[in-house]
Design brief:
The complex is a heterodimer of chains A (114) and B (114). Chain A is mainly beta and 114 residues long. Helix content of chain A is 0%, strand content 57%. The chains are: A mainly beta (114), B mainly beta (114). The interface between A and B is medium-sized, with 27 and 23 residues.
């Protein structure tokens, strides 16, 4: 089991460029999430998908779009990157077990927007 | 308004002593609490959790205490080891609320010296 995988590990973009961050999980989890982590800010939710075919906005969705391609894959797209989107992006997936839900994270994508 | 607060950005402890990391929350609807550990350049990893129906959960060297009346939880690590040096995030959610994504605190950096 690879768990949650993310590609790329690191990316540099120029302002205005677009890119898609990929995430896949092999744990058969229904829910998937995208977070960003900024210094001193903890992890903030960008978008999530409670199940295949559904997506919802989180705390900081502006400037991003997502696609839940299938149960395994959940991608995050930046249509026109801005320096404020320089961050570390984490994908996570979760399952519920006896009323408790635990999220498992990927290794992260470090994005630098110049 | 921060719903989950970790008021100590950092904590330094000697090897073998107890580490106590604290977390406060404001939303009385939270019913599930988790602690994550994060090493540099890696994703957060799940450490331990507690349901609101309990006041203590123990797993090896790690114990989480929950005081619902004070809206406070703490993570105790005994004995602390140098490998425990990491950023610790407290997180909470309400499983019965729409959009059950985790709300994270900003993290506490633990340094354990040998």
């Amino acid at each position: 089991n690879a768990g949650v995988t993310q590609t790329p590990k690191f990316q540099v973009l120029k302002t205005g460029q677009s890119m898609t961050l990929q995430c896949a999980q092999d744990m058969n989890h229904n829910s998937m999430y995208w977070y960003r982590q900024d210094p001193g800010m903890g992890l903030r939710l960008i978008y999530y998908s409670a199940s295949e075919g559904t997506t919802d906005k989180g705390e900081v969705p502006n400037g991003y779009n997502v696609s839940r391609l299938n149960k395994r894959e959940f991608s995050l797209r930046l249509e026109s990157a801005a320096p404020s989107q320089t961050s570390v992006y984490f994908c996570a997936s979760s399952h519920e077990d006896r009323g408790q839900e635990t999220q498992y994270f990927g290794p992260g994508t470090r994005l630098l927007v110049l | 308004d921060q719903q989950v607060k970790q008021n100590s950005p950092s904590l330094s402890v000697q090897e073998g002593r107890i580490s106590i990391l604290n977390c406060d929350y404001t939303n009385s609807m939270f019913d599930y609490f988790l602690w994550y550990k994060k090493y540099p350049a890696e994703g957060p990893t799940f450490l331990i959790s507690i349901s609101s129906i309990k006041d203590k959960n123990e797993d090896g060297r790690f114990t989480v205490f929950l005081n619902k009346s004070a809206k406070h939880l703490s993570l105790h690590i005994v004995p602390s080891q140098p490998g425990d040096s990491a950023v610790y995030f407290c997180a909470a959610n309400n499983l019965y609320q729409a959009g059950t994504a985790l709300i994270f605190g900003k993290g506490t950096t633990l340094s354990v010296s040998s």
